[in-house]
Amino acid sequence: MNITSNVKYIVFSLVYCVTLQAVQYQNTLEFAQQMDTADQLKSYRSCFFFPQHHGSDVIYFTGNSLGLQPKKVSANIQQELDDWAAFGVEGHWNARNPWLSYHEILTDKMARLVGGKPIEVVMMNGLSVNLHLLLTSFYYAGKDRYKILCEQKAFPSDQYVLESQVRLRGHNPDDAIIEVGPREGEQFVRHEDIIAAIEKNKDQLALVMIGGVNYYSGQVFDMKAIAQAGHAAGAIVGFDLAHAVGNIELKLHDWDVDFAAWCSYKYLNSGPGGVAGIFVHERYANLNLIRCAGWWGHDKASRFKMEKGFNPIPGAEGWQVSNAPVFAMAACKASLDIFDEVGMEALCAKSKLLTGYLEFIVNEINKTHNNCLEIITSQDPAQRGCQLSIIAHGRGRKLCDALIESGVVVDWREPNIIRAAPVPLYNSFEDVYRFGQVLEKVLD
Ligand SMILES: *Cc1c(COP(=O)(O)O)cnc(C)c1O
Question: Is the entire prediction scored with pTM above 0.85?
Answer without folding.
Answer: yes
